Amino acid sequence: xxxxxxxxxxxxxxxxxxxxxxxxxxxxxxxxxxxxxxxxxxxxxxxxxxxxxxxxxxxxxxxxxxxxxxxxxxxxxxxxxxxxxxxxxxxxxxxxxxxxxxxxxxxxxxxxxxxxxxxxxxxxxxxxxxxxxxxxxxxxxxxxxxxxxxxxxxxxxxxxxxxxxxxxxxxxxxxxxxxxxxxxxxxxxxxxxxxxxxxxxxxxxxxxxxxxxxxxxxxxxxxxxxxxxxxxxxxxxxxxxxxxxxxxxxxxxxxxxxxxxxxxxxxxxxxxxxxxxxxxxxxxxxxxxxxxxxxxxxxxxxxxxxxxxxxxxxxxxxxxxxxxxxxxxxx
Length: 331
Hints:
By secondary structure, the protein is mostly helical. It has 19 helices and 2 strands.
């Protein structure tokens, strides 16, 4: 009985492979081996169970079975091929990357190609970066391009980062995907990506992309990032919403100083931007933030701004805020 239990996964695989052989009717189309679609896909649940059993095998025995599955291109085997792609990615062999690359290039199902692209992000090397670049250059499938952008973001190295930068500047690429590439470049956090994004900001007009650049630069915490964000805040030629956005993310910088926000407040004539400064101050835990709110509430001549500063002081747990509010009430 114990022997039969140990043999069951292998017997299941053999049964599944026999089903493949029985049902195959290969027809060459465009250089690919395409299997005629059957009206009845049969017991795919059993076949999936057989593939689960393959994960327990060593690579020498597992790979031929997985290759057999991936050679099929009928609709009935699409779910099986997606599973096979995952299983290939788990095999610690030199052939795994080549098999995944082939699936990206040749499989007719978008879902399978997306799965192969995803796992290339975990296992692929230099050749994988080239294939992912080709996907971005030649594919018109947005979902596949999106997966390729993510896969590239998971590759360390200058080459993958450069491919993402090249994609961001493409005016023919979907805006939302360019935004994704900007996000991942900010997540990378390199000096080269920060400098690239800052230069790009001044050369584009799409506000959505500019917002994403502001966010991404803010994720690269450095004095250079802080200074650049402040330059956007103080640039009166920029739309106020972008300046407010940059101001918010400036408030997330660890090395922000009181003088930075005081200068923004004093130099701005825009009511919305000044209100945003008050909000940013209210979000900070530094002692000087409360000092700045109190100072503004004392000297501000605009009634709305003074009331705004008092409101945010009321949200503070700092004893100095309570003392100042008591002082105002007692007048």
